[in-house]
Amino acid sequence: MKYIYYMGDFKNNLKELMENNGLNISKLAKNLKMDSEWTIYSWFNANKLPKLDNAILLADYFNCSLDFLFGRTSYDMEQKFKKCPPFNEQFKKVLKESGVSQNQLMRELHFSGGNIFSWTTLKANPRIDTIIRVADYLGVSLDYLVGREK
Length: 150
Description:
It is a single chain. By secondary structure, this protein is mostly helical. The protein folds into two domains: 3-69, lambda repressor-like DNA-binding domains (434 Repressor (Amino-terminal Domain)); 87-146, 434 Repressor (Amino-terminal Domain), CATH 1.10.260.40. It contains ten helices and no strands. The longest helix has 18 residues, at 3-20. It starts with a helix and ends with a helix.
């Protein structure tokens, strides 16, 4: 799937969540304690997906799954989520449970070794579209991959 596919779902679902909660961009930025409204504007107007930490912040705020936020599932109001562990810990755990090596993931999804190394050593979090590709490949939810799912 393409990045732009997730962008449309993300914008539509975020807009719906904001409308259902009587929020505009200014109120959402204030409620999320963001330094600037520009980040949220960029998601709507510059076709940017949020970084992982902001995606989790949004999903936590609206009590929705990351999978819903990015159009992978329908909304489930009964879900409860937990605080995410560091991504590198959960990523290694999910790979081990899936029986997939870092090298296999690198080959199959055409990732560089440097990217995988940085994800497993906590130097960087992958972009959300990359996390979606990994979750699709491993057959897990985004929330499970980042450690939010109970």
